């Protein structure tokens, strides 16, 4: 859909009761190239607009008429209808409390003060919309992506080998080709940014073998670890090594997914799970190893994220190697690390063939651009 993701195709709803400010905003937005702009002067008119069409971005004034929190009424309406539009709140009476409520409580994309110089506030709105579009272009609509995954068997029964367009947890159009589907969407003047387009087909691709993977070079989606917890250099168990493995898994989930091999060294040679199994005690086997991994994942990453990980084993050169296939997370994933008496949440990403820990500022910026 990247060819379609241009400013001229963005569908905007401006909820604003100040006619003078609204006129200036429309003029400025049109200069920036926006062509599909609808307006509403109050909450009810906004509801009527939402009844009739879909919007990529909704920009709502906080104060509408006599209601100091009219903008939040619009946000409530969006949430109740399960609408996936990006929402930006504007206000002339900005407060830290309202800002936190908008961003944290309601999950708004942005909170912009009108008390800037008029030109700056309008340009800030344009910049915020563009950032939202970059996010949608790169990551799509996570709510509907998740719905498609959950409803896959149902969709497969109705739309096998067809392309579907989904918005607000609903299939709104389908066609035999992506081009035909986009043509229908264009005819209906629907927003392309929020739509999720998928081909519904049975999965036939075979999983890549561990032996094939270990012959590839490490990358942003492939990592080798010699062991889970056995320190080869010191010939003893080293629990700190566990967090290198867990950090890599979190990095994959916060990036594009990937596969971690345990029992393969940096030079691609096979060490196997022997040292780790010995560290677990006499008679322990790969089931015990997998149980340890599952416990670590649940305890340090979270049980809710366990479905994103698939653990498998394969014999390579007569030695058992473990692979952990990781899917991308629909939300940011953190690793709980013990520091003294406290557990600290840390945020990792993949950067090239390494796993990188981000500081608070870096993590905040990364999360804003990659999830909402």
CATH class of the largest domain: Alpha Beta
In terms of DSSP E residues, the strand content is 15-25%
Radius of gyration, CA atoms, in whole angstroms = 25 Å
The number of helical segments is 13
- Helices and strands, in order, run as EHEHEHEHEHHHEEHEHEEEHEHHEEEEEH
Terminal CA distance = 20 Å
Strand order of the largest sheet: 2-1-3-4-5
Helicity, in percent?
25-40%
By secondary-structure content and strand pairing, the structural class works out as alpha/beta
Number of domains: 3
Question: Can you tell me the residue ranges where pLDDT is under 50 for at least 5 consecutive residues?
Answer: 1-5
Q: Biggest β-sheet: count, sense, barrel?
A: 5 strands, parallel
At CATH level 3, the topology of the largest domain is Methyltransferase, Cobalt-precorrin-4 Transmethylase, Domain 2
Mean pLDDT: 85
Number of strands: 17
Which shape, going by the Cα principal axes?
elongated
What CATH architecture of the largest domain would you give? Answer: 2-Layer Sandwich
């Amino acid at each position: 859909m990247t060819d379609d993701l241009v400013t001229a195709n963005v569908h905007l709803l401006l909820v604003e009761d100040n006619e003078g400010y609204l006129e200036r905003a429309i003029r400025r937005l049109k200069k920036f190239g926006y062509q599909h702009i609808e307006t509403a002067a109050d909450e009810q008119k906004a509801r009527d607009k939402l009844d009739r069409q879909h919007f990529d971005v909704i920009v709502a004034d906080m104060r509408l008429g006599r209601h100091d929190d009219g903008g939040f009424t619009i946000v409530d309406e969006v949430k109740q209808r399960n609408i996936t539009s990006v929402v930006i709140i504007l206000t002339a009476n900005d407060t830290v409390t309202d800002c936190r409520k908008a961003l944290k409580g309601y999950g708004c994309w942005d909170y912009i003060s009108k008390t800037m110089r008029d030109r700056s506030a309008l340009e800030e709105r344009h910049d915020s919309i563009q950032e939202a579009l970059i996010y949608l272009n790169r990551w799509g609509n996570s709510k509907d992506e998740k719905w498609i995954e959950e409803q896959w068997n149902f969709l497969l029964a109705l739309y096998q080998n067809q392309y579907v367009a989904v918005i607000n947890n609903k299939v709104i159009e389908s066609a035999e080709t992506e081009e035909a589907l986009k043509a229908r969407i264009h005819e209906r003047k629907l927003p392309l940014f929020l739509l999720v387009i998928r081909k519904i087909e049975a999965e036939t691709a075979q999983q890549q073998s561990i032996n094939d993977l270990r012959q590839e070079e490490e990358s942003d989606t492939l990592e080798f670890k010699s062991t889970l917890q056995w320190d080869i250099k010191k010939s003893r168990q080293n629990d700190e090594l566990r967090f290198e493995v867990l950090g890599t898994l979190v990095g994959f989930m916060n990036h594009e997914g990937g596969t971690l091999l345990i029992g393969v060294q940096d030079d691609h040679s096979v060490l196997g799970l022997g040292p780790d199994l010995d560290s677990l005690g006499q008679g322990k086997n790969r089931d015990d190893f997998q149980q340890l991994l599952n416990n670590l994942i649940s305890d340090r990453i979270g049980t809710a994220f366990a479905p994103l990980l698939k653990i498998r084993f394969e014999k390579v050169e007569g030695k058992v190697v473990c692979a952990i296939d990781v899917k991308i997370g629909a939300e940011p994933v953190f690793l709980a690390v013990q520091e003294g008496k406290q557990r600290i949440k840390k945020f990792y990403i993949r950067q090239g063939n390494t796993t990188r820990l981000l500081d608070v500022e870096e993590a905040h910026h990364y999360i804003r651009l990659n999830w909402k």
